[in-house]
Write a structure and sequence with these properties.
The chain is mainly alpha-helical and 205 residues long. The protein has one domain. The chain contains 9 helices and no strands.
């Protein structure tokens, strides 16, 4: 369910942000989703409460991305990170007495510290990405999580990916590379059009 997010983001970015996706970008996003399906090979199960939580998580993430993209034009990355961390901290504070459990050794303290450090760095990079690129251009990249999970499983747990996992990874990478290629071509085209306009204006002057 969570991997429906790129398609939902692409769909709502048009009416909410004015960032409409063409058919080529939609095709790349759908291809990435197909790659995820090849890797996960989900079966048909009963829809339960857990699925509702996953659906809520996916929709929340979609609107978080849209709001990040919109607010990144006027707010700093640091302020966005601060308030996105402060809000859940305040909301979850009443639950602290019922679930407080401190680490028992220095290793776990270190792991928690690194979790915070890498989480903050990743969040900052995410905000920067949505500041510099459109939501539709970045939409397929979450699919690369599947590839990193496969690599981590191989290195950490010695779980070598099977044939279908490798095929799905290739599909995901190909869709991402196509988006990068497409964005580069659009930038070149826009730059050329701008140069023509500047040259025409200079001739008039």
């Amino acid at each position: 369910i969570y991997f429906f997010a790129p398609m939902v983001i692409t769909a709502i970015a048009g009416p909410l942000l004015g960032e409409w996706a063409g058919w080529r970008r939609w095709l790349a996003i759908l291809s990435g989703f197909v790659g995820v399906l090849i890797i996960t090979r989900p079966g048909v199960g009963v829809f339960g409460v857990g699925h509702l939580f996953a659906l809520g998580s996916m929709l929340s993430n979609c609107f978080y991305v849209i709001m990040t993209r919109r607010m990144s034009a006027t707010e700093t990355s640091e302020s966005l990170i601060l308030f996105s961390a402060l809000a859940p901290a305040v909301l979850l504070l009443p639950m602290l007495p019922f679930s407080l459990s401190l680490p028992q050794d220095s290793w776990h303290w270190f792991i928690l510290l690194m979790l915070g450090v890498f989480g903050a760095i990743g969040h900052w990079l995410l905000v920067q990405a949505y500041r510099l690129a459109t939501t539709t251009a970045l939409a397929p990249y979450p699919y690369s999580q599947m590839i990193w999970m496969v690599i981590a499983g191989w290195i950490v747990f010695n779980q070598f990916p099977d044939r279908w996992t490798l095929v799905g990874a290739i599909v995901i990478v190909a869709s991402g590379l196509y988006i990068v290629h497409r964005e580069h071509r659009l930038r070149v085209r826009n730059r050329a059009a701008l140069d023509v306009e500047v040259e025409a204006l200079a001739k008039k002057l």
